[in-house]
From TrEMBL:
Protein name, per record: HTH tetR-type domain-containing protein
PANTHER family named among the record's database cross-references: HTH-TYPE TRANSCRIPTIONAL REGULATOR RUTR (PTHR30055), POSSIBLE TRANSCRIPTIONAL REGULATORY PROTEIN (PROBABLY TETR-FAMILY) (PTHR30055:SF209)
UniProt DNA-binding residue ranges: 31-50
Keywords: DNA-binding
Glycoprotein listed as a keyword: no
Highest taxon in the source lineage: Bacteria
Alphabetical list of InterPro entries matching this protein: Homeodomain-like_sf (IPR009057), HTH-type_TetR-like_transc_reg (IPR050109), HTH_TetR (IPR001647)
Domain HTH tetR-type: 8-68
Pfam families noted in UniProt: TetR_N
């Protein structure tokens, strides 16, 4: 019977081997036989640790998110939430183009029932960028909608570029989409009073967790009102 330490070593070797095969030859190369040979373990070990091939692929995707988060943690804020969002977008697209097979597995093969804490944490980083924009009074739509829009557009652009032959890619596609999304969710100076009021409501909604003067019940009620107003 394997000890926990031995099982962890086997798991790490297997995931690393599967990640290499995925990068070199695509998802079809990640067979139980090929991975067990590359990792130096017997095929039953893979079934015991991951259940089946899909379980192994889920583990590879989770490993990809761990690496993604490690890279994000090294980048410091510029002090400008919009510049931070732009940098995060560009970094996201660059990661996808550098490791297309892994990125496609992480984002195209997503299944809600297998969402891992690290995958959620990756999305939460985007949420923090959006929250910073809201706190600066620059967000014109609710935070949840803004985060969902940026996530959908960013991953969609990246997958589109991955599926397009390198010599046929539009070099301006990512930047154009990025700026269109930013224009849709942010504001410099609201054009009219209604826009200014909505922006103020979004900003107040972002600051609610810090309003210690209000009780939990009062903050909950105010959040409900602000959410209703901004929609």
């Amino acid at each position: 019977m394997e000890t926990g330490e031995v099982a962890d070593r086997h798991r790490e070797r297997i995931v690393n081997a599967a990640t290499r095969l995925l990068a070199e030859d695509g998802p079809d190369a990640v067979s139980t036989r090929a991975v067990s040979a590359a990792a130096g373990v017997q095929p039953p070990t893979i079934y015991r640790l991951f259940g089946d091939k899909q379980g192994l692929l889920d583990a590879v995707a989770a490993h990809g998110f761990v690496r993604y988060l490690a890279g994000k943690s090294k980048r410091r804020s510029t002090g400008d939430p919009l510049m931070d969002l732009r940098a995060g977008w560009d970094e996201h697209v660059a990661m996808g183009l550098a490791e297309p097979a892994l990125y496609t597995l992480m984002y195209s093969g997503f299944r809600p029932e297998t969402e891992t804490p690290v995958a959620r944490a990756a999305f939460d980083i985007l949420g923090k960028h959006i929250r910073a924009i809201a706190e600066a009074g620059r967000l014109r739509v609710p935070e949840e909608r803004a985060a969902a829009l940026v996530h959908a557009a960013g991953s969609g652009v990246t997958l589109t570029l991955i599926r397009t032959p390198a010599d046929q890619r539009d070099p301006e596609l990512s930047a154009t989409a990025r700026e269109a999304v930013i224009a849709a969710i942010t504001t410099d100076a609201p054009a009219h009073a209604a826009s200014a009021t909505v922006a103020a409501a979004v900003t107040l909604r972002a600051a609610l967790p810090e309003l210690g003067q209000l009780s939990i019940a009062e903050r909950t009620l105010l959040a409900e009102w602000l959410d209703r107003f901004t929609r």
